[in-house]
Amino acid sequence: MKKKTTGHTTIKDVAKFAGVSKSTVSRYINGKIDAISPEKVKNIKKAIAELNYRPSKMAQGLKIKKSKLIGFVVADITNPFSVAAFRGVEEVCDQYGYSIMVCNTDNSPEKEREMLLKLEAHSVEGLILNATGENKDLLNAFSEQHIPTILIDRKLPDLKLDTVTTDNRRITKEILQKIYSKGYTDVALFTEPISSISPRAERAAVYQEMASAQNVNGLVRMYEIDVKNKEQLKAALRSFYKDMPEQKKAILALNGLIMLKIISCMEELGLHIPQDIGIAGFDDTEWYKLIGPGITTIAQPSHDMGRTAMERVLKRIEGDKGAPQTIELEAEVIMRKSL
Q: Where's the HTH lacI-type domain (predicted)?
């Protein structure tokens, strides 16, 4: 048989030719042949020779030597959550002699795909991902190559991957209860586009349930905002403030980045916290207590989430073959005077 020389042979081609699964070919490439029958080994060798298959850089790196490199992909590097989580990952990496390659996707599935391919080419030993919700085929490919992949903050229920997150539904309900207990009758939710991002969807679902029961007239006010579009945000704030001005108004900001933008735009609009609009949100930072009257926030265990995710990577690298785990860390409400 004439050898294939196009240079585009994939692991799938080899598996099909050899009559085995892609994961079996992957194990062979990475030198894990003890669990493969001699007949299958023979067929895989023949397929590789006939198809002129060359393993990817990642597969070669794993077989020859360890890179001691961990990929950390964040959805938005400017979000306070990302910074705190990175510090947690970094602490564990430093302790065990690993380096980190940090990639920022700007919540773009296309950019996320590009970053994942770059990490593959750099032979990362593990991946921690704050996912956009797309590119599941690539994440499956990482699993097939035995690259431990841990999701942080955002879930992908369709994939069997370890996930480190927080108890979004419980903590959102708790902060909304505190808002309503302060006498607010018109509470709005401000969020970046929800899309398929699980924490936003979970928090928004709780808001919708509670607003329909406790807001005046059961009114649900949910504003999906492009945080790069200041005029859109200012228009939404103006609209919310002017509609039914007799009601006591508050905003729940769904993450730290949109909280910062809201505070800035309220100042430009001459709106005061909490006299005009009360405000609360996610992702507590040290300087929230220094802004105006001090901002009520949900303190997510972002740093500990980073540490826990990296610890899971290490366990998988060390050979833990157990079923994927979803680890939920507890958040807490920090009450200040913005309500």
A: 9-64
What is the bridge-based pairing of β-strands 149-152 and 69-74?
unpaired
Measured CA to CA, the distance from residue 240 to residue 251 in angstroms comes to 9
Asked if 38 and 9 count as a contact pair (C-beta separation under 8 A), the reply is no
Distance of CA 273 to the CA centre of its chain: 30
E strand map for 136-207:
149-152, 162-166, 186-191
Question: Cα(110)–Cα(153) distance, rounded to whole angstroms?
Answer: 20
Separation between Cα atoms, residue 90 and residue 189, nearest integer Å = 33
CA-based max dimension of the chain? 82
In sequence order, what E strands does the chain have?
69-74, 99-104, 126-129, 149-152, 162-166, 186-191, 221-224, 249-253, 278-282, 296-299, 326-329, 332-334
Whole-number Å distance between alpha carbons of 70 and 58:
13
Q: Report how far residue 145's alpha carbon sits from residue 135's, in angstroms, rounded to the nearest whole number.
A: 16
Model-level pTM greater than 0.90? no
Contact 289, 295 (CB under 8 A): yes
Residues with Cβ within 8 Å of 110's Cβ and at least 6 positions away in sequence, in order, are none
Residues whose CB falls within 8 Å of the CB of residue 133, separated by 6 or more in sequence, listed in order = 109, 154, 156, 195, 196, 197, 198
> Which stretches of the chain drop beneath a pLDDT of 50?
1-6, 58-64
DSSP 216: G
What's the rounded Cα separation, in Å, for the pair 166 and 169? 9
The sign of the dihedral angle between the CA atoms of 75, 79, 83, 85 is: negative
Are residues 165 and 326 in contact, defined by beta-carbon separation less than 8 angstroms? yes
Tokens of 239: 């609209």
* Buried b or exposed e, range 122-138, using 16+ CB within 10 angstroms: ebbbbbbbbbbbbbeeb
Q: Give the residue among 164, 229, 239 at the shortest CA–CA distance from 198.
A: 164
Centre a 10 Å sphere on the Cβ of residue 286 and count the other Cβ atoms it contains: 6
Q: What residue type is 119 in one-letter code?
A: L
| pLDDT reported for residue 61 | 47
pLDDT at 1: 41
Read off the DSSP letter of residue 259: H
Give the three-class secondary structure for 65: coil
